[in-house]
Amino acid sequence: MQFKVAAWNVNSLNVRLPQVLDWLRERQPDILALQETKLIDADFPTLDIANADYQAVFSGQKTYNGVAILSRLPASELVTDIPGLKDPQRRVLGATVGDVRVLNVYVPNGQAVSSDKYTYKLAWLDKLAAWLETELARYPRLIVLGDFNIAPEDRDVHDPVAWTGQVLCSVAERTAFRRLLDLGLQDAFRLFPHDEKVFSWWDYRGAAFRRNLGLRIDHILITPALAAVCKGCEVDKAPRQLERPSDHAPVVAEFNRTPEL
DNA sequence: ATGGTGGCGCGGCCA
């Protein structure tokens, strides 16, 4: 018996709902964390999700951002803000599902190095790290997943030379990402061998997906207790090949189910 | 090529 957890930036749940419902039916994840739902909570398609046999919790806003957690089991202990961070942008959702703690994050994009948004991104990551420290102390089975908008290493970039120092790849962003790992998390994807040039995001422009000009910026970070039972972590490129796709593909991690304590 | 594509929503922002 295994359980399966996934993260997918859908770039508008309104547009992508049919793809999400198809994907739930085909892949049967136990937990799916969505980013960029771009929906106010009153418009969340709770009924469609329920008809697919999933529960949904969400924190959304009009036009931008928005996160949700779809799960087989009910979610409790919801948190919709990083403690101490006053932010109208709906970018985090914490929930307890079964015997795991889930933190769904949509890290700010940062736009360009030295922009105001880049400064906001680094400050946001700083607050996230402080929050993770307290969550890690509380929950030995913690999953932090979502769109981190950071390619952690050169091997996560299709053209590392061209991207050197650019937003999503800058030293300060990579240092911030490394700091999250150093708190006691592991990148599930890197627990396993993979082909070269596996990415999770491809620009809509310039036929980037067809040419595999992408970045790996969507991640599933897990505590040692979960790493010990993690059986695999992959990017599912199939939804990116559909008509009218998100610019991101889902990242999926599978775990052996351990006896509940 | 200071571009390109897509979502939101109808001009311009954001990614």
Description:
This protein is an alpha+beta fold. The protein is about 25% helix and about 25% strand. The protein has helices spanning about 15-25, 45-50, 115-140, 160-165, 170-180, 225, and strands spanning about 1-10, 30-35, 55-60, 65-70, 75-80, 90-95, 100-105, 140-145, 185, 200, 215, 220, 230-235, 250-255. The strands form 3 sheets. It has a 6-stranded mixed beta sheet. Strand 3 and strand 4 (about 65-70) form a beta hairpin. Helix 3 (about 115-140) runs parallel beside helix 5. It is globular and about 45 Å long. The two termini are about 15 Å apart.
Q: How many β strands by DSSP?
A: 14
Percent helix: 10-25%
> Judging from the principal axes of the Cα atoms, what is the shape?
globular
Radius of gyration: 17 Å
